[in-house]
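can u do me a favor
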């Protein structure tokens, strides 16, 4: 089954090129396009990931756009010219799972999409550099719910077991795990695997040292 990708960009030529790259992959298909996040969501498409242009002509803020998508359980990969680090930081604070430049080669774009679909983050040197200059973001802590999810999941419970214990859906647990990984990656403390999450939880005092 091909994973469904949405694109939010108000430049038709760019959308056409990006859609062509994505649709050429046997495991991916573009299932929604919009010049704004509102337009994309109004189409009612069921999406597994959205590729979001940071700077849109409607004047919307990256943080609001990212939150509008992540609140619906849709992971976000932002793509940009890379010359506006303040927008990158804003998207990172809001829960974006990664960033990639519009100038990157097609295979790198595909690799970033696939990584996020696996529940990993797509952190780049541009993203890390932008985050490093943002003291507020560096100091961001996990929410109480995120800490609860991390504690159980990193201890060895499955997503289903965590969901049952916390009385939420499995998808909600997976969304929390994606955001947790994004926060750690933004601090240059990447945690792509479950054992990495365990180490981060121990380092931050969420789990006891053994």
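np, heres the sequence
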């Amino acid at each position: 089954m091909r994973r469904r990708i949405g694109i939010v960009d108000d430049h038709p030529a760019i959308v056409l090129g990006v859609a062509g790259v994505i649709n050429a992959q046997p495991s991916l298909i573009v299932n929604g396009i919009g010049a704004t996040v509102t337009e994309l969501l109004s189409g009612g498409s069921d999406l597994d990931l959205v590729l979001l242009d940071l700077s849109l002509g409607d004047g919307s803020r990256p943080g609001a756009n990212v939150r509008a998508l992540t609140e619906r359980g849709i992971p976000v990969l932002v793509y940009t010219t890379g010359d506006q680090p303040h927008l990158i930081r804003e998207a990172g604070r809001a829960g974006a799972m990664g960033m990639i430049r519009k100038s990157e080669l097609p295979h790198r774009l595909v690799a970033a999409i696939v990584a996020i679909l696996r529940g990993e983050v797509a952190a780049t040197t541009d993203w890390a550099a932008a985050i490093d200059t943002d003291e507020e973001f560096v100091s961001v802590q996990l929410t109480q719910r995120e800490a609860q999810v991390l504690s159980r999941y990193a201890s060895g419970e499955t997503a289903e077991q965590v969901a049952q214990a916390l009385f939420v859906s499995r998808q909600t647990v997976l969304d929390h795990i994606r955001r947790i990984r994004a926060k750690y990656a933004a601090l240059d403390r990447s945690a792509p695997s479950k054992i990495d999450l365990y180490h981060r939880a121990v380092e931050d005092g969420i789990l006891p040292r053994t």
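The longest helix spans residues 170-186. hope that helps!!
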